[in-house]
Design brief:
The complex is a heterodimer of chains A (446) and B (181).
Chain A: E1 6-10, H1 14-26, E2 30-34, H2 37-46, E3 51-55, H3 63-73, E4 78-83, H4 88-96, E5 101-104, H5 109-139, H6 150-163, E6 169-172, H7 179-188, E7 197-201, H8 207-215, E8 216-217, E9 229-230, H9 232-235, E10 240-244, H10 251-263, E11 265-267, E12 274-276, E13 280-285, H11 289-295, H12 300-306, E14 309-312, H13 323-337, E15 344-345, H14 347-355, H15 361-375, E16 380-381, H16 400-414, H17 419-426, H18 430-439
Parallel strand pairs in A: 1-2, 1-3, 3-4, 4-5, 6-13, 6-14, 7-10, 10-13, 15-16
Antiparallel strand pairs in A: 8-9, 11-12
Helix pairs in contact in A: 2-3, 6-7, 13-15, 16-17, 17-18
Chain B: E1 5-10, H1 16-30, E2 34-38, E3 47-48, E4 53-55, H2 56-65, E5 71-78, E6 82-84, E7 87-90, E8 92-94, E9 100-104, H3 119-137, H4 156-161, H5 168-180
Parallel strand pairs in B: 1-2, 1-5, 4-6, 5-9
Antiparallel strand pairs in B: 3-4, 6-7, 8-9
The chains are: A alpha/beta (446), B alpha/beta (181).
Chain lengths: 446, 181
């Protein structure tokens, strides 16, 4: 709480000013007086007052007009209007325009005491609220974004400036670079931070599921819709919706999405009532949307609607100097979560980590550290605990399809192309495995 | 402070027994000698017909202008109901760190509230108001401690609830202020 609450008394009657001055001084407030609105406004330009107690009827500018001007200087100022019985209507008008309260002259001593006490409590709450907000800002200070490289600093600067706006953002970058983390950082530093950030992984859902997920559905809209369900757009009201892997959505969904982005209204599946939601869109993709537009697989109008701001997250190989910091961060994170003593990283292992290309970026490094802690000796992470084999570097797998093909091939080779055993290992049936082999044109090498 | 005393100007007739009791209580708490003086004043000049009350600010000015080299502090005691423009009534008023104050016994009387006359209670209430206003004159502001005599009282019940003494914090501040006076 502030040490001393300051009060400005504005009244054209000297006796009123003196009386209030003496009353408040006795109560230990910091009090100043002004005989008219003009002088009060001049005083307010040079210093702030917590409470302004103003007469409504004054020669020249009246209390109502003065209140309007004070509110333009500081919309949070607490103004208490003093009025005679005859001008209660004007006092009510003042309340509508943002006055904290009004008192009719002469006041009951109790009224004045409670009024000022309430106003002081309001100031204390405001002060406490600001403090807590500042604390939350510090807490949400994107603590998982680790690094001191120039590339990262540039990225965070972009995040900071983008966060304050309400524009749509597309975050591009390779898989595992931390696109969702950047989206969270934008949300956490934006004015929407006290509302939710809702994430939707578009690539993980079929078209109909995605539709129901985004817009919600009414009970009985389809088989299995046994209750009404809010959509993600509705949940994100006031906050941010994060659409991951936006490049994977179907043409139909692209049209739907475009309409929602333009109108901010939508209809739940199986319903006809329009719902409005105020959300900000942040998308992420590891695909080249521009070339998808050229190929005709992504709508141009949607692309321009989403691509107001484009943020590129650099791959880990472009911020090699962050690798040691990230590695230490992950060691701390996993040692803590596994309730183990903090372990160190062997300098030789660290050097190898810095030289590794990390096609899977930060996610790969994180997984590597977690694995090393699990299988290691519990004292330090050694080179042999890290899967930094040559076969891992220069991997160009980006899509799930490529990954599936590669994985099936590895399993087939492991079981010498025994379909039954491979299918069992992959936990699919034989027919599915045959279909996959055909689809990926896999062949047994001699 | 040597040879100076707190002077109470009696601006009407007051029961001697009650006043002596008040003086005794003030001296015991403030540790300053108190002198009583009769004071002739035509209060009709300070009457506000619209409020049927008397302007405390103007009466305060009378005592403020009054020169008395023997007075450490000057307080006028009235029987009439006092007001200041912003408040419906006051029990007393004093200038913070000043040497002047005015007090009314009008709203301290039990009879005003339809109760039986009680001189002891009246003396106690008067003493508390005197000590409170003298506290302001010695630079004390209102105290949050509900038992302290410097706690703000807006109704007579509040006066009855609080103590006649200063809390330890106000007592300490009073000591410093009296020394600097």
């Amino acid at each position: 709480m502030k040490e001393k609450v300051s009060i400005l008394v504005v009244d054209d009657e000297e006796s009123v000013r003196d009386s209030l001055y003496n009353w408040f001084i006795d109560d230990g407030y910091d009090v100043e007086c002004a005989e008219n609105a003009k002088k009060a406004l001049t005083m307010l330009e040079s210093r702030d007052f917590d409470i302004i107690l103003a007469d409504i009827k004054m020669p020249g500018m009246d209390g109502l007009e003065m209140q309007r001007r004070i509110k333009t200087l500081n919309k949070d100022s607490i103004i208490i209007i003093m009025t005679a019985f005859a001008s209660v209507d004007t006092a009510v008008q003042a309340l509508k325009e943002g006055a904290f309260d009004y008192v009719t002259k002469p006041f009951d001593p109790d009224d004045l005491t409670y009024l000022i006490r309430n106003a002081s409590n309001q100031i204390a709450l405001k002060f406490e609220n600001e403090n807590l907000k500042n604390k939350i800002s510090t807490l949400e200070n994107v603590e998982d974004i680790i690094g001191e490289s120039e590339a990262l600093k540039k990225l965070l600067k972009e995040v900071e400036s983008v966060a304050q706006s309400n524009s749509s953002v597309i975050i591009t970058g390779e898989s595992g670079t931390g696109k969702e983390l950047i989206a969270r950082a934008i949300h956490a530093n934006s004015p929407r931070k006290f509302f939710p950030m809702i994430s939707v992984h578009c690539g993980a859902l079929t078209e109909s599921l995605l539709e129901s997920e985004l817009f919600g559905h009414e009970k009985g809209a389809f088989t299995g819709a046994t209750f009404n369900r809010k959509g993600r757009f509705e949940m994100a009201d006031g906050g941010t919706i994060f659409l991951d892997e936006i490049g994977t959505i179907s043409a139909k969904m692209q049209i739907e999405l475009l309409r929602v982005l333009e109108t901010k209204t939508f209809v739940r599946v199986g319903d006809n009532k329009e719902i409005h939601s105020d959300f900000r869109v942040i998308c992420a993709t590891n695909r080249d949307l521009k070339s998808m537009v050229v190929n005709g697989t992504f709508r141009e109008d949607l692309y321009y609607r989403l691509n107001v701001v484009n943020i590129k997250v650099p791959p880990l190989r472009e911020r090699v100097e962050d690798i040691p910091l990230l590695a230490i961060h992950f060691v701390k994170k996993y040692c803590t979560s596994m309730s183990r003593d903090l372990i160190s990283i062997d300098p030789a292992a660290l050097k190898q980590l810095e030289e590794f290309e990390f096609p899977g970026n930060v996610r790969e490094l994180e997984n590597m550290i977690e694995r090393a802690i699990v299988i290691g000796n519990g004292k330090e992470i050694r080179l042999k605990d890290l899967p930094l084999g040559k076969e891992r570097s220069n991997t160009s797998i980006e899509s799930l399809e490529d990954l599936e093909k590669k994985h099936i091939q590895i399993i087939l080779e492991k079981y010498q192309w025994n379909i039954s055993r491979s299918a069992k290992a992959l936990k699919v049936d034989r027919a599915t495995l045959y279909n996959k082999i055909k689809k990926h044109k896999l062949k047994q090498e001699n | 402070m040597k040879n100076k005393s707190i002077i109470i100007y009696l601006c009407d007739y007051f029961d001697e027994k009650i006043i002596n009791e008040v003086v005794y209580k003030i001296e015991r708490t403030i540790h300053c000698p108190v002198t009583l003086k009769k004071f002739e004043i035509d209060v009709t000049n300070f009457y506000y017909p619209g409020r049927r009350q008397y302007d405390a600010n103007k009466l305060l000015k009378v005592f403020s202008d009054l020169k008395n080299p023997c007075a450490l502090k000057k307080i006028g005691l009235f029987k009439v109901d006092l007001f200041i423009p912003i408040l419906t009534f006051i029990f007393g008023q004093a200038i913070l760190n000043g040497d002047t104050g005015v007090i009314s016994k009008f709203r301290l009387r039990n009879e005003l509230y339809g109760l039986k006359r009680d001189d002891n209670l009246l003396a106690e209430r008067l003493a508390k108001v005197f000590i409170h206003e003298l506290g302001h004159m010695f630079g004390l502001i209102h105290c949050q401690n509900p038992g302290c005599v410097m706690n703000s009282s807006t109704y007579v019940e509040h006066i009855d609830q609080k103590d006649q003494e200063f809390c330890s914090k106000c007592r300490e501040n009073l000591g410093h202020n009296k020394l600097s006076n």
